């Protein structure tokens, strides 16, 4: 089956992102595909390229990126939720006159409408919220 | 059949009661994260009406030191079992 996950919890604040990541690994081990992870609400902080957690703790941003590299999982970030939290890519940073940027590939800023597409194009959508 | 995924316990939230009210037919309930507190002792009595269709995530019970205190009417599943439950359900509903 082709799975999608909706992650709405910030990393290290609540358990949601950790639960989602463990679920992601478990579904792949069972032979399923993880097509998409969609980050929404405070979940967009999972995409911050500047995250620098202590080395003996799980690096969530890196773990999501690894899923993309190993399994081709799309990492979609709701643009409306992200911009207002300072999660912006280089293009948006330029557009808004900001010096730095906090999001880079393989994470992609996308519209919320994309979540509807994800829901209809995947066999399962499982939500992890704080 | 829907799989309801609940991460709140009835000791601190009314969401579990909303979840129970929304469940119908042969829907199943999986307790995860802080939801597993609801799998312990007298709190678990609230799930009596849906006995046989309630599950708790083993690693969330273990990380809270509650594995031995789970009500035996609530079935234990690991992360692999969680995925299996989502395979068997047509859709999942997360309550939080």
Give an overview in words:
- The complex is a heterodimer of chains A (130) and B (96).
- Chain A is α/β, with parallel strands linked by helices and 130 residues long.
- Helices cover 35% and strands 21% of the residues of chain A.
- Chain A contains five helices and five strands, in the order βαβαβααβαβ.
- Chain A has a five-stranded parallel sheet, with helices on both faces.
- The longest helix of chain A has 14 residues.
- Chain A starts with a strand and ends with a strand.
- The model of chain A has no long low-confidence stretch (mean pLDDT 98).
- With 96 residues, chain B is α/β, with parallel strands linked by helices.
- Chain B has one domain: Hypothetical Protein Ychn, Chain: A (3-Layer(aba) Sandwich).
- Chain B is globular, with a radius of gyration of 12 Å.
- The model of chain B has no long low-confidence stretch (mean pLDDT 97).
- At the A-B interface, helix 1 and strand 5 of A face helix 3 and strand 5 of B.
């Amino acid at each position: 089956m082709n799975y999608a996950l909706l992650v709405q919890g910030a990393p290290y604040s609540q358990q949601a992102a950790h639960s989602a990541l463990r679920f992601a690994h478990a579904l792949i081990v069972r032979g399923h595909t993880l097509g998409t992870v969609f980050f929404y609400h405070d979940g967009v902080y999972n995409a911050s390229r500047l995250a620098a957690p202590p080395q003996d703790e799980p690096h969530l941003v890196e773990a999501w990126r690894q899923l993309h590299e190993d399994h081709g999982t799309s990492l979609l970030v709701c643009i409306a939720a992200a911009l207002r939290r300072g999660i912006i890519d280089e293009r948006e940073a330029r557009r808004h006159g900001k010096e730095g940027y906090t999001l880079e590939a393989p994470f992609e800023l996308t519209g919320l409408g994309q979540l509807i597409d994800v829901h209809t194009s995947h066999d399962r959508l499982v939500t992890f919220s704080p | 059949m829907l799989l309801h995924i609940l991460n709140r316990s009835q000791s601190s939230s009314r969401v579990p009661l909303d979840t129970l009210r929304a469940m119908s037919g042969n829907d199943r309930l999986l307790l995860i994260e802080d939801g597993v507190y609801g799998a312990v002792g007298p709190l678990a009595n609230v799930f009596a009406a849906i006995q046989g269709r309630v599950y708790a995530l083993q690693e969330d019970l273990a990380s809270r030191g509650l594995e031995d205190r789970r009500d035996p009417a609530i079935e234990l599943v690991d992360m692999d079992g969680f995925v299996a439950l989502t395979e068997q359900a047509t859709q999942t509903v997360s309550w939080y």
